[in-house]
User: What shape does this take?
Amino acid sequence: MDGRWKFELKPMGFINIGGAAAVVSPRLHEPRWKGVCISGAGPAINLVTGPVALWFAGQMTHGAWERYWYLVAAFGVISLMTAVFNLLPLRTGMQYSD
Assistant: This one.
């Protein structure tokens, strides 16, 4: 493999619901810490944005933005739920998710 990305279209993949995208390093000997950083970045950001959004929602109870507090609160709750869900090892086909 020369490090180039390869695009492959499989029409039957649109019918099969169990499809998934996999990220593969173009280098054979990639350090493990890079994989840990890539896998942990999503849950980490969700764990940061969730409480921040909930704090903002609590501050929006008075003022011009009061009627939109529930949207910000919903974003916070969804961010926290996504963080927990992303930490679960899910198997898709022959691979585990990150």
Q: What stands out?
A: Strands lie at 91-92, 95-96.
